[in-house]
Every structure is written in structure tokens, then in C-alpha cells.
What we know:
Number of strands of chain B: 10
Distance between the termini of chain B: 38 Å
Number of strands of chain A: 10
Strand order of the largest sheet of chain A: 1-2-3-4-5
Largest sheet of chain B: 5 strands, mixed
Radius of gyration of chain B: 20 Å
Order of helices and strands of chain B: HEHEHEEEHHEHHHEEHHEEH
Number of helices of chain A: 5
CATH topology of the largest domain in chain B: Heat Shock Protein 90
Structural class of chain A: alpha/beta
Largest sheet of chain A: 5 strands, mixed
Largest interface: A-B, 37 and 41 residues
CATH superfamily of the largest domain in chain A: STAS domain
Shape of chain A: globular
Number of domains of chain A: 2
CATH architecture of the largest domain in chain B: 2-Layer Sandwich
Order of helices and strands of chain A: EEEHEHEEEHEEEHH
Structural class of chain B: alpha+beta
Distance between the termini of chain A: 34 Å
Helix content of chain B: 25-40%
Number of helices of chain B: 11
Strand order of the largest sheet of chain B: 2-1-5-4-3
Strand content of chain A: 35-45%
Helix content of chain A: 10-25%
Oligomer: heterodimer
CATH architecture of the largest domain in chain A: 2-Layer Sandwich
Radius of gyration of chain A: 16 Å
Number of domains of chain B: 2
Amino acid sequence: MSQALTIVKDLRDGVLSANLVGHIDAGSDYSALQFAGVTQLHLNFKGITLINSAGIQKWVKFMQSVPDTVAITFEECPPNIVNQCNLFANFTGGKKVTFKSFQAPFFCETCDDSVDILLQTDQVLSGGKVTIPEPPCPKCQSKMDFDGIEDKYFLFLTR
Amino acid sequence: MSVSGPASRSAQKQPGTQVLLISSNGKLAESVRQILPASCQLIVEADIGRSRDCIRHTPAIPVVAEFTPGQADGNGLSLLLHGHSSNNTVLIANGSDQDNLGFLFEHPGLMNMVPSSFPNFDHELKTTLVKKFGLKTKWGISPYLKTGAQIEKLRLYSFSNHGTILMTLNQHLSKIKAFRSFPDRIQTIATELMMNAVLDAPPQENVRNHRRKLHQRNQGIKLAKTEEVHVEFGYDDERFVIAASDNHGMLKEADALQRLYRCSTLGGSQMRMTENRGAGVGFFMMYTWCSQLAFNIMPGKRTEVICILPIVKREKFALPEARALNFYRGRSL
């Protein structure tokens, strides 16, 4: 049940891509991520299944350790990461982070079920304004409603 | 407003139960008076300073207290606080400003806090007083659930056992029809509760080291009997309740109250992000997601933290439920 954080990384032409999988907790070790010669850091959170308070604190410390010369991008943030970004403004360690994509919960009235849908930031954010899409249900193709408080959930995009 | 005189030391020495109401609300005073047994003496005190003196002179351990971040005054946080002390003095306070709130949170004798909905004030007050009157403590999660609710009681004594508890929790969560983030939140809260309960054990028992090892997934680590954490969770068709308790009672009521005060007055952006213990990050998450938090703190003996979450199908219904408790007032989130 408890999954130690695994980091699958790939460094090419100064771009360090890292897929984070498992739990972000006090035991999470980011020492695999070194920044010599790195100009861009792409962090993919798709595989993060749990984040707790000790994990947040350690994460913030890690983010603060990323050199200012490195451009940081967050990709495929699941709702648990989005929630933390919204809850704690310094979740990014005070660094400017580009959110490339993230998941958001949607509800299908027809199926009476909810599903997390991957959204591209440029699909949602335009000119500083957030427009919520109505993606089709993966099962019945009906239009789905966003299932959350819009001005809270998308806050991280406009902060 | 009906005032039966300032609280005094002599009044506290009288036999029988006394009730101290800190409020300038005459209607409230009358409500309290009506539901109290005839043998009780009601002391109504509007002046927070005089109330402070009264409380200072009241041996206040153990105490059961309840507060409500209310909506009634529409201006700042309101507080409803009921408490029992060892000499059968019941403390009820209804504050409507930050000063009162801060003062009450600073008071070290409080041990059980349950936010409840202010619009149901009269009902809540009566229910609470009737339920709590004469009671020293109310342990366990069953009072928060309907009769017949499924309740699971487990013990945390090792890291592998920690995983088993989360797995058992997950099995139950898979049966609950709730919004998608609901299982994540419960699991996070469970982890927060368990790890903090382990950390709160006496330092001489080397538990801090144990906690570090737990985090490092040391399968061999085994907590001593006195360090074990009792985890209890259950649910009915409306709410999910999860609690962790320990047998050492190292958590001070003032710590819990101060953190709660901070949560109620600070936004997440103002939370300190240090690696030090007690930054309140976990507490802030619990506070944000839960519709109720309850604490039973018996210093040196036992501590119990109870988290209550509404079971709703859609996430957008969960947050307003917490917002109805006024948790979000004045916060940046």
C-alpha cells in the first residue's frame, strides 16, 4: 500500500525529465535529480498517489534547491498535487513554474460517475482567464460538468 | 442580558455543578438556563476579562470543550465553546471577535473541540449539553456515527502494519460512493494522524527515532506497547469518521488549540513551510478537508484526534459543506 517515491529520469540536451511515481512523504529522496548542465526541468506527477505534510515540507525544500537558472515545468498534475498547489502558495518553493498540464475532476450525470480528465493549460487558460471545458465522458460521450469549486481549483493557474 | 453575577472563587467552591457562560447574548443565556437542571448554577459573564479570572481559578483538567466557527454575527469568527472541568464547572463561551477567540485558544485547560454548525446553534447546544453533562470524556468515533455504522478498530505497531492499516482502509473506501479525491484525502488524513500520534510519544522511549524509521520504511521497526497507536474508522451513509489515539498523551491541548487558531486565521499561503515539526501543514490539510475535527486530550494519559468528513458524491458538494462552518472566512483560499 505504501509506495516509496520512485523517480524515472531522462537527461537530454540540458532538459531533465523526471516521472515521479508513488508517495511524496518524509522518506522521499530527490538526490537522483542533479542540475549540473540542466536548463529545463520537466516534472511529471501522473504517478503520485499520495502526498502528506512531511512530504510537502521536504518537497518545498527540494524545490528551493533547484537553481534559479533552471526553467521548471509541471506536467499531468493529479488533483492531489493541484490541491496542494492551491492550498500552499509556496508549494513551488518560490520558483516560477509553468503548469503544462493537469488533471481535473469531471462528473457525468448520465453515468452518475466522476473521472479525472487531463487538461492542457493552454486549453483552459487564455489571456489570464480560465475557461472550463466540457469534455465528453469516456464511457457514454455525454458532456461532463467540472466537479469542484472552479475559482478554487484553477487558482494555481492565475496566481 | 441576564447576568447572575461575576464568576468568583467563592462561587466555584460551592458544591454541585456550575455553568459559566461567556456571552453578551441574552437569548443564549436564557436558552442555556432553560436546559440546565435546577441544581445547576448558571454564571453569565459578558466581560472577557472577568471570565478570564474565573477560568484561571478553575482547575480545568480534564475539560471537554466545543467550539463553532460561526456565521451568526457575520463579522469575524464566532466561537461556541462548552467545557467541563474536574470540579464539574461547565464553560460555555460565545465569542465573536479575534480577541476572544485568541484568548480561548490560549486557555490551556481545553481538551475537546468540535466545530459544529452555528445555524443549528440551539439544537447543537442542547444536544451537546445533554450528552456531555456529567461526562468526563467521550472517546471513540461511535458518537459521531449513526447506530449500526460499520466501525473498524486497528493498532499501529510497525511499518508493515502501517501499510496493512492503509490497505484495510482502502478496502472500505472502495465500497463508498464518493467523489474521486475522497479516498486520497482519507488516506492522507490517516497517515497524518498515525505519524503524528507516533511522534507525540514520549521522547525517552526513542519514538522520534522510530518515526524516522517508519518513514524510511524499516519493516523491522516495532513500537512498544506504550507507543502503539489505535486507529479507528467507520462510516454511515452521510459521514466518514477516522480517529487515532495514543496511550501517552504527550500532545498538549494548547498546541492543538494554537494550531487550530492558526488554521482558522491564516490562509495556506501564510503557512510556514519548514521541515520542523509543528509547522501545522498536516493540521491545515485536515482542517481544510474535514467538516468537523474533535480532540480528546487527557494530558499524560491519552490523546485522541477525530476527523469527520461528509460522504458526498460530488466534490463540489464537499467544500461548501466545510465552508458552511465558516472555515474559509478571511482566508486566501
